[in-house]
Amino acid sequence: MIEMKTADVRVRVAPKEKMTFEDFLDWCDEDTHAEWVNGEVQMTSPANDEHQDLADFLTTVLRQFVRQKKLGWIRSAPFLMRLPDSSRGREPDILFVRQEHLARVKKTYLDGPADLAIEIISPESVGRDRGEKFVEYEQAGITEYWLIDPTRARAEFYRLDARGMYRLIDPDANGVYRSQVVDGFWLRVDWLWQDPLPMEEDVLREVRENQKG
Fold this sequence. Notes:
15 strands, single chain
């Protein structure tokens, strides 16, 4: 383990040598934000307050909805997702796995694609989220990919089409996006930009009272 101490705070430094996925799992503890790409460790920056607040809001709302409906499994970062080509382990901000795919969930990682991956864009991650991960998640068969950009107050919702390619799905005329993989769940996009964010229980009540399908 490579460590540095700055003002009594431990800072982990990525190893220079390549490692196997199993070695990466042994090296990466629950407090380390890192991804595994082609055998190399890529460190990611800690989330800022706005990013974490939005991630917690979405995780709470989705988790409560998914649990009540018994739809599957929700996790927030850091939790690793090993993509099917076995050369990449990514760490989306939020993961959802449908009930029928729960065999993919292992103790310390997801062995295969999620059904929904959510990335909250930061200045440090914009190129990775819109570039590398967009292509990787599409090729892995992740049915829905949400890109949430709080800096620009913009949310993009991508869904695999019949050709296995991502297609941008716009919210409806009322600014509502309805998920295809989280059955019955919908999101009013304006909620994401409120300051402070709305109360989770109020959002869940509205979602439950206005479900379709």
